[in-house]
Amino acid sequence: KYEEAINIAGRGISIKGKETRFDLNLTKAYQSLNNNEQAIFFAQQVLRYAQKNSPLFLELKRMSAG
């Protein structure tokens, strides 16, 4: 159901804007589908507004490295 998760998270972003949980869900869904290009893109989006040095930030930094 990764495709469904992608659709729901995409709608959430268009409604709420910057919400780390939606971008994180997109990152993980695209990773699960082996779509690394999209996974890296969304990980980098979250890095823009995630709290520096938080566990989420560090995880996304690792994901965005590819």
Describe the structure.
With 66 residues, the chain is an all-alpha fold. Helix content is 76%, strand content 0%. The chain contains 4 helices and no strands. It has helices spanning 2-16, 20-32, 36-47, 55-64. α1 runs antiparallel to α2, α2 packs antiparallel against α3 (36-47) and α3 (36-47) runs antiparallel to α4. 26% of the residues are buried.
Characterize this entry briefly:
With about 70 residues, the chain is mainly α. About 75% of the residues lie in helices and about 0% in strands. It has helices at about 1-15, 20-30, 35-45, 55-65.
What fraction of the residues are assigned to beta strands by DSSP?
Answer: under 5%
Instruction: Note the main sheet.
Output: none
Number of strands: 0
Q: Give me the secondary-structure category.
A: mainly alpha
Provide tags for this entry.
4 helices, 66 residues, mainly alpha
Summarize the SSE layout with pairings.
Elements (H helix, E strand, L loop, with lengths): L1 H15 L3 H13 L3 H12 L7 H10 L2
Helix pairs in contact: 1-2, 2-3, 3-4
